[in-house]
Design brief:
The chain is an alpha/beta fold and 198 residues long. The protein has one domain (5-197): Flavodoxin domain (Rossmann fold, 3-Layer(aba) Sandwich). The protein is built from 6 helices and 9 strands, in the order βαβαββααβαββββα. Strands 1, 2, 3, 4, 5, 6 and 9 form a 7-stranded mixed β-sheet that branches. The protein has a two-stranded antiparallel ribbon with strand order 7-8. It comes from Mucilaginibacter terrigena.
Length: 198
């Protein structure tokens, strides 16, 4: 079967978003996917790789209710090839990290989704429902009740990167698995289409 090729483009201010990107990458590699971690500050050296990936996942912290300045700079640098639509029909997904439960992370995910739409990419949402027990939401999967993408709450330290909340780690794993499933289904569909044509 064709090997899935995924890039994770991220900007990280204090290391929390980088840690999330690394954990997602580990999940992909465990499924034998080809994974490329790209720091948004060095994206100019990775355009060729990004253009050949099946899926590009975008990640950044939420600062003041939106994407970080570093990630916004990356977004704007894609204007050099945007008009050529080199990412058209690739899959896209996103994750964001902030130190509060809400922090307007939804706005960050929406900003990235619009960016992906302008590149004519297909969006993969989180696809993980929150879990309830005795009519109360649990502290497990999708505890932040996000649907557009992955939200993670970090602590507020700027000196070290501590473990994320267990519920967020579980949601991260389910998010990565969903992206893999979408890619696998796409490969099977492409194979079936080729067989029909032949």
């Amino acid at each position: 079967m064709q090997k899935i090729k995924i890039a994770i483009v991220f900007h990280s201010g204090y290391g929390h978003t980088r840690k999330a990107a690394e954990l997602i990458a580990e999940r992909f590699r465990a499924a034998d996917a080809e994974v490329h971690l790209v720091d948004s500050d060095a994206a100019d050296k990775a355009w060729g790789t990004l253009h050949t990936c099946d899926t590009i996942i975008f990640g950044c912290p939420t600062y003041f209710g939106t994407v970080s300045a570093g990630f916004k700079t990356f977004m704007e640098r894609t204007g050099g090839f945007w008009y050529r639509q080199l990412w058209k029909d690739k899959f896209a997904a996103a994750f964001t990290v902030s130190s509060t439960l809400g922090g307007d992370k939804q706005n960050t995910l929406q900003t990235i989704a619009v960016f992906a739409a302008q590149h004519s990419m297909h969006w993969i949402n989180l696809g993980v429902l929150p879990r309830f027990c005795a009519d109360e939401q649990t502290d497990g999967q999708n505890r932040l009740a996000s649907y557009q993408g992955l939200m993670i709450q970090s602590d507020n330290t700027q000196t070290e990167v501590r473990e994320f909340h267990p519920g967020d780690l579980l949601t991260l794993e389910l998010f990565a698995d969903r992206i893999l499933q979408v890619n696998f289904k796409n490969i099977i569909k492409q194979s079936e289409n080729e067989q029909t044509i032949n």
